[in-house]
Amino acid sequence: MRFLLSALLVFLGSSVYAGGPNVIFIFADDLGWGDIGCYGNEWFETPHLDKLAVEGMRFTNAYAAAPICSASRAGVLTGKTPARLGFEFVTKHEEGYQPIEAPLRAPPYTMNLPLEEVTIPEMISDRDTGFFGKWHLNKHHNGYLGWSPTHGPKAQGFDVAIEDFGSHPYSYRGKNADRSFLDLPKGEFPTDAVTENAIEFLRAPHEQPFFLMVSHFYVHDPIHTRVKWLHDHYLEKIPDTHPRKAILAHYGAMVTALDHYVGQVVAAVDEHLGDEKNLIIFTSDNGGHPNYFGNAPLRGSKWNLYEGGIRVPFIARWKDTIAKESVNDTPVWSLDIAPSVAELANVEIPDNVDGQSLLPILQESSTSTEGRTFIWHFPYYHPEKGYSEAPLTIGSDDGVTSKTKPHSAIRKGDWKLLHFYEDGRNELYFLPDDLSEENDLSEAEPEVAKRLLEELQKSLEEAHARFPDKNPNYHNQ
C-alpha cells in the first residue's frame, strides 16, 4: 500500500513548485471546544495544538456546520449548510426513517453526499489533493464507515485517498479484539497510519500548491486507549472526586494522542516544505460527547444546537501572514474553509455557497461580531436508541445524553435564537453575558426574538430545507 501511494504521488508531480500556499486541513472528530489546553483545559495536555495557536490565530467564536458528523463534513467540503444540502444527520447502512416514537417524524436519512455537489478538490481540480482518515459521507460500505466506490473520496474529487482506521480504537474493536495495554515507553505513541499516509503525501513532489485533508477518528468513541503510561498519568491527575474519572483517563489519553499526531504532521510540514507558504487549519466536526468531558461552561453537546454542540476549537497558522499569538473573536464557521481554499487557488466559488472566505480575517487580523448570520438546522431526534428513557433537560457537563428534539438555530451578532418544532417554542440568548445559555430572553426581548425567527425561517425556506412532519406512527396524540 505504501509503495502504491509513493508511485502515485511521484506520478502527480515531479518537482517542487514555486509559490503557495499549500493548505493542510486537520479535522478532529467530536473534540469539544474546551478539550485542549489553549482553550482553557486544565487536565488534558495538548502541547502541539497549544504551540500551533501561539504560532498563529486562535478563534474563540468558531462553529461547526452541524452538531453531528456527516452533516458537518458535507458542509465543510461544499461550503453549504446541511439545510441546503438536505444532509442533516449521519449516513446509515440502509435508507429509512428514525425508529422513534415521537410527535414528529424527521426527514428520511440521506445516504450519500450527491455527486453533483462541488467539493473542495473539485473546486481546485488542477491541484494535487489528498484525503486520509474518516469520510462518513456515503452509505456504509462493507462495514461501518466503509468507503463507497461510487461516493467515496476519490469519487468526490480527491486524487489520493487511503482508507484506514489508524491507531483509533475502531482498528481493534470487536468481540474478540485485543484491548490490552501496549508495552510502550513513556512518551511514545502507537504509529498512526492516517498520520503516516498524510505525511507521505506532503513529502512527495508537487508541481502546484496542494490541499491535504487529515480527517482523524480521534476522539470519537469508543473511548479507550492502549497507551498505559498516558492512561495512568491521567488516572493520577484527574481528581478522585470526579464522577467520570475512570473514563476520563481514557478520554484524556485520546485527546493527547490526537495532539501528538497533529504535531507529527505540523513537524513534517516545517521540515519538508521549507520556507514555502503553508496554511494549516485545525478544527473539529462538532461539539464534544456529553458522556465524557462535558463541554462546560457551554450548555449542550454533540447532537444539539446549544453552544456545546456547535462551538468548536479553530486554529489557523500561516507564517509571515497571520500574526503570532493572535486571538480572534470574530464568529466564523467551518463552511468558510471551502471558499477560502477556492480564493487561495484563484478559482470561482460555486453558486449557493454559504461560507465566506477567511482570507481577510487571516491576513488583516480583523475582529468583528457584527453583520454575519449563521444558520443551523437539525430536524431529527436523538438518541435513536433509548430515546424514551433519556433525560429531557439538556444541561452543562452533566455526563448524560439528553433528549434532542427537532430544532433550528440562528446567530446574528451577539444574539442567538433556537426554534423547536414540536411546540413552536423559541429560546433567545445574549451570548456575551450568557455563554452557558441559561437565561432565556425570548419574553423579555420579543422584538429581537421575532426578527431572528423571521430571518431563520426565510433562510431555511430559501435553502429549500427539509422539515419534520406529523408522525403517522405516533399514538399518544
Structure description:
25% of the residues lie in helices and 14% in strands. The chain has twelve helices and 16 strands. Strand 14 (415-420) and strand 15 (426-430) form a beta hairpin. Helix 6 runs parallel beside helix 8 and helix 7 (228-237) crosses helix 8. Residues 1-19 have low confidence and may be disordered.
Put simply, the count of helices is: 12
User: Can you give the helix content as a percent range?
Assistant: 25-40%
Rg of Cα set: 22 Å
**Which spans have pLDDT < 50 for at least 5 consecutive residues?**
1-19
The secondary-structure class comes to: alpha/beta
Strand content: 5-15%
- Any idea of the CATH topology of the largest domain? Alkaline Phosphatase, subunit A
Total number of strands: 16
Give the strand order of the largest sheet, numbering strands 1, 2, ... along the chain: 6-5-7-1-8-9-2-10
For the record, the CATH architecture of the largest domain stands as: 3-Layer(aba) Sandwich
Please identify the top-level CATH class of the largest domain: Alpha Beta
End-to-end distance: 57 Å
Global mean pLDDT: 93
Oligomer: single chain
